Amino acid sequence: MTLATYIGRFVAELHPARLPPEVIEKAKVCLLNAYGMGLDCHDTPYAPVARAAAIALDGEVENGATILGDGRRTTIGGACLANAALFHGRAQEDTSGAAHFGTILVPLLTAMIEVRKYPLSELIPALVAGYEVGGLLEEAYAGQTTPAGFRSTATYGVVAAAASAARLMRLDAEKTAAAVSNAVSFTGGVLQSFADGTDEWRYQPGVVARNGLVAAELAKAGSVSAPRAFEGKAGLAKAFARVECDVERLSSQLGKTWFIHRVTFKPFPVCAFNQTPVTGALALREEIGDAEIQNVRVRMNPYECGYAGMDSKGPFSTISGTLMSIPFCIAVTLVHGIPNMRLMTTYDDPAVNGLVERIELVPDSEVPILSAVIEVKTVDGRQFMRDQRMTTEDYNYDRATVSKLVRRIGNEQNVPQKAFDLIEQFVDKLPDSSLDDVLESFRMVEPPRGGVR
Fold first, then answer.
1. What does R_g of the chain's alpha carbons equal in angstroms?
2. CB-based burial of residue 244 (10 Å sphere; 0-12 exposed, 13-18 middle, 19+ buried)?
3. Dihedral of CA 273/275/276/281: which sign?
4. pLDDT tens digit string along 53-63?
5. Which parts of the chain sit beneath pLDDT 70?
């Protein structure tokens, strides 16, 4: 059988009763983080841009999908474009390897359920389907596609979205296989916006979600789709990763590895690869005290150092540049402490920019991914070193930890705590909850009527 066929069977047969309790719980954690961070992003500038584009493309639609934090309604695809940009606004969405599937899947499924009234009993299986299919491909190929300049969120997210949409639509195995095959033909997205410090990456998840929905709808309508979309000589593995697709190995992992457990969360509003450098720099800051820093040397895995924008020293004019830059994230942490949105959007701080120039980034294959070795030399001749070794488990938060995280940020962003109460109530009671709780929580952060959207 082809990989698409295996995926089609796996997704179509993914029923709540067959899901391990720990998988269901992790899916609920992912939902809480996605909605919670969406609330915390209510005043970021990217959602208004995406909202304007969505309305221009699809218009306002009576009984359509709600543009969260705005209140207008549009098509499901339009809501995906707008709401994914909202959820992506702080760059604190969840992470599966190098991909951010939550910011794709949760807006998509939320809009589909609101408009089409699918039962909430189907939400968790559909969400898990996306994380599993996307995670399978990301884990297999990101090591090749990321250095080639492809962004994992866009490269594997369309297939993940198609799998989620197909499962929510209850497509059979054959049509689900067609949906993910279609998605392969609609996939792709490059990393150059990170290197240039621009915003395209903010909007990729919404476009990806729309394309995944299109892939599923085409399959439902009877599209004839490439059976060897993954393993063919011009399929995903060969075209993007330049490797052979091991169908037997990949198919054997479905329903056994549970890739949702690879999903991690971000304590700081910086790139996933900068979470550990910031953690290490915070510890060093306590050791160094008031001593003046002469220079800093940072050793990290080449995979992370080579990611677009990670080695940039500016000059910076956007947070898209600062949150990716290892030197900037370490400098702002050593100078000021925990990075927040205000610090990450201050581009003319002489103390930070001066230190950025004195930070040397060294690719070192001996340093594992998600780790960093930071060496600091002070003007008075002292030397400090932090070997910050971390793994995905350090960022694999439980629901209580995610709750504290989104609520802490909510206090900074003036989000009513009642809004978090509502989304936690929704997650707690699944499948016996109401999507009205989610919609009401986002109404609490809408701008005043007549205000700027």
1. 22
2. exposed
3. positive
4. 999 999 999 99
5. 449-453
* Residues 83, 181 share a domain: yes
Domain residues for 388?
A: 272-393
**Residue 450 belongs to a domain:** no
Contact present, 105 and 135 (Cβ < 8 Å): no
The pLDDT score that the predictor gives to residue 448 is 80
Structure letter (DSSP) for residue 234: T
344 touches 322 (CB < 8 A): yes
pLDDT score of 453? 44
pLDDT tens digits, one per residue of 279-311: 999 999 999 999 999 999 999 999 999 999 999
> Maximum CA pair distance of the chain?
72
**256 and 294 co-located in one domain:** no
Number of domain units in the chain:
2
Q: Which two tokens stand for residue 42?
A: 């209510």
pTM, two decimal places: 0.95
Q: What is the pLDDT of residues 405-429, one digit of tens each?
A: 999 999 999 999 999 999 999 999 9
* 296: enclosing H helix or E strand: strand 293-300
Give pairs for 340-345: CB < 8 Å, separation 24+: 340/269, 340/412, 341/90, 341/269, 341/412, 344/269, 344/270, 344/319, 345/319
From residue 361, how far is each of 255, 276, 296, 300, 372 by CA, in Å?
A: 40, 14, 9, 8, 10
Angstrom CA distances, 296 to 3, 29, 219, 378, stand at: 47, 37, 54, 9
Q: 150-180, pLDDT tens digit by residue?
A: 999 999 999 999 999 999 999 999 999 999 9
- Report the CATH number that the domain containing residue 244 is assigned in CATH: 1.10.4100.10
pLDDT digits (tens, 9 = 90+) for 368-383: 999 999 999 999 999 9
Question: Is 61 a domain residue?
Answer: yes
Please answer whether residues 345 and 319 qualify as being in contact, where contact means their C-beta atoms are separated by less than 8 angstroms. yes
The DSSP bridge partners found for residue 296 are 359, 376
- Check: CB of residue 392 under 8 Å from CB of residue 370: yes
Expressed in angstroms, the distance from the first to the final Cα of the chain is 50
Hey, what are 355's tokens? 């230190």
Angle, helix 173-185 to helix 152-168, in steps of 10 degrees: 160
Q: What single-letter DSSP state applies at residue 237?
A: I
Tell me the two tokens of residue 21: 């309790």
Per the CB < 8 A criterion, the answer to whether 259 and 96 are in contact is yes
